[in-house]
C-alpha cells in the first residue's frame, strides 16, 4: 500500500502520519472524546457508519456501525488508521489512497470511492466511503469526517439493473431481428422456418414451439420443433384437432387471450391430454399465444420450456409482441400462397394436359413457376402431331408476369397449334402467329421457337422469333448450341413488317437430344447470362441419358436454377437409336392462296421427303408435277390446295401425289396452239406421271398421280 502524505489510512489507509500539520489551529476532538449525536443515530439507522480523522494527530475514530462494515470488533481497533489496512484489499487500498491524496493536493472538498474489504472468513465484500475535508483559513487540511457503508446490496442491485438493461436490449434486439426475419418471409413455409430454427427459438427463449393454423372448425399443426414418439402419436395425435376439444391452442384461438402456465402440474391439470406429452418432452412451463390479424383468428402458437417457472411482465410483453408480428407475417404469407396457387393453376390449365406419343423418339416437358410472388408468367410449351407422322414442338414466352400474360399465352398457343395442324410450313406458322398476336388487343410481344421434326429422317425445320437457340446433346456426349437464324419477337415482327421468318434445317442423329427452353433457365438477377448459358450446357452434358430424368435434372438440379425468381419451361426431344418400324411414309402440306412463299416451301418439303425415301431419281418429275397442279388449284379455284405425298410399297411400289382443292369443276385436256401461254398442264402431268386421275369429293376434287419406283 502506498504511503502518501495526508493519506486517510482508515479507508484503505496509508500508515504514515500526515505532514505539514497546522500549528496555529486548535486541536480537533480526539476519538475518545467523540459522543454519539442525532446525526450518527440517523446514519446508523440507514446502515452507515461514521468516521472522524484528525490529520494532525493521526487518530481515527470509527463508530460501531463503521466497525461492522470493516468486520471488526471494538477491541480489534485501536484508533490507528494502519489497523484498518489489513481489512482492505491491497489493490483497492492503493486506489483509495490515490483518491484521497488527489483531493488533498488539489484542494477538493470531498472524495468518494468503492473498495473491497477482506472479511475475517476470507470472503470479499464491497464497501463505500465518502469524506469531507475540513481546512483552516490558510486552506490547510486538518480534519476529515465522513461515512462508510456496506455497498454489497447496492452493487448487487446495480448489477441486477445492468443485467436487466442488457436483457431488455437483447429482448429488443430479438424482437427486431425476428420482425426483420418475418418481414423477409414470403410463404407460410418461410414463416415456419423462421420460427422453428435454433435462432428462432433463442429469440423466444423457448425450448420448443408448435404452430397451428385454423382450417374451418379444426386446428391444423403446421410446424413443430420436436415431434413426440410414434407410439404417443398413435395413441392421441394432436396434429389435427377440433377447436372445441379444449386444448390450449384451440382455447387461445377461441378466447384470443394469451395463457402463461408456470408449472407442469398447472399445465396437466388444466389440459389432461397433454400429460404424456409433457412427461415425454420434459415440459415444465408453457405459453399459448393467439395469432390474430385484422380482427380474425388465424391460429395459435405454443412455446414450451424445460427449466422456466416464472413469466415476468417483460417476458409476457415480449411474447405477445412477437406473436403479433408472427400473425401479421402469417396472414401475408397465407394470402401469398393462395394467390400463388391460383396463378399457378391458371398457368398450368393453359398448358397441354397430355403429351402425345411420337414414333421414333420421345418427348419430355417441364414447367416450373418462379418465386416472384403472386405473379404468373407467360411461358408455355406444346407438342403438336403433324401429318406424315411428323411432330411440331413449340416453346415460347409472352412478355410480362401477370394474369394478362397468361391469358395472351393461352390464346397464342391455341392459334399457333391451329396453324401448325393445318400443315403450314414453319415459317408460315410463325408469321401467322405474329399476325395473330399483333391483332390482339394487347401491347405484349412474345418470343417463340417452333420445330417441325421428322424423326424418321432426323430432319428438323426450325423457326425462331427472338427466342433462345436450341441446345443439342449428341450421342457422343458432345453438347452445343445450334445456330438457328431468327427474327423479331411475335407481334413486333408484324408491326415492323418483318415477319418473313427464315427457316433453318438441322439433322438430329439417332440418340441425339434437343433442348428447347425459355430464358428462365439461363437468366438470374445479378448474374451474367453467359454464365447461365454455360451452366445449362454443362448440366445438359453431365445429365442422365434417360429423357425424363434429364428433364428433372435440368429443371431443378443445375446451379442456375437455385433460387431463380423467373418462370421457366423446357422441352426435350430425344431421337431413338434405331428408327421405329412405322417410319414416316406420308407427308401433308397446305398451300394458301394468300401465301406467296407456300409453293417454294412445298418444293423444299417434297425434295426432303423424296431424299429420305430414296427416290431422288423421281425428284424432278414429282416436283414439276406438284408445282403445276398446285398452281392450277391456286389460279383457277377460290381456295388453297392440300398436297399429300405417300410412299407406297408392295407389288408395284410408287410415289403417289394428291392435290385437293375446293372446286368441283373437273380438269380436262386442251390442245393449245404453238403460241398459247397456258393449257399444257395436264399434258405435262400425263407425260411425267405413270398414271393419274381425278376423284370428285362432293365439295371439291382430288387430282392424283403415281410415279413408279424402279426396283
Overall description:
Helices cover 35% and strands 26% of the residues. It has 20 helices and 27 strands. The strands form 5 sheets. The chain has a 6-stranded antiparallel β-sheet with strand order 8-7-6-11-10-9, sandwiched between helices. Strands 13, 14, 15, 16, 19 and 20 form a 6-stranded mixed β-sheet that branches. A 5-stranded antiparallel β-sheet has the order 2-1-5-4-3, sandwiched between helices. The radius of gyration is 48 Å and the shape is elongated. The model is unreliable at 1-36, 558-563 and 673-678 (pLDDT under 50).
Quick overview:
This protein is of the alpha+beta class and about 700 residues long. The protein contains 20 helices and 27 strands.
Number of helices: 20
The rounded Rg comes to: 48 Å
- Distance N terminus to C terminus? 125 Å
**Secondary structural class:** alpha+beta
State the assembly state of the protein chains.
Answer: single chain
Task: Lay out the secondary structure.
Blueprint: H1 38-45, E1 48-54, E2 60-62, H2 64-69, H3 82-85, H4 90-106, E3 110-118, E4 124-135, E5 141-150, H5 152-184, H6 188-196, H7 198-204, E6 208-215, E7 218-224, H8 230-235, E8 240-242, H9 248-255, E9 259-261, H10 264-270, H11 275-281, E10 285-293, E11 296-305, H12 313-349, E12 361-368, E13 378-386, E14 390-398, H13 403-421, H14 426-439, E15 446-454, E16 459-465, E17 471-473, E18 479-481, E19 486-487, H15 492-495, E20 504-507, E21 513-517, H16 529-542, H17 547-556, E22 568-575, E23 586-591, H18 598-612, H19 619-636, E24 641-648, E25 654-661, H20 681-688, E26 691-696, E27 701-708
Parallel strand pairs: 16-19
Antiparallel strand pairs: 1-2, 1-5, 3-4, 4-5, 6-7, 6-11, 7-8, 9-10, 10-11, 12-22, 13-14, 14-15, 15-16, 16-20, 17-18, 17-21, 21-22, 23-24, 24-25, 25-27, 26-27
Helix pairs in contact: 5-6, 5-7, 5-12, 6-7, 6-12, 13-14, 18-19, 19-20
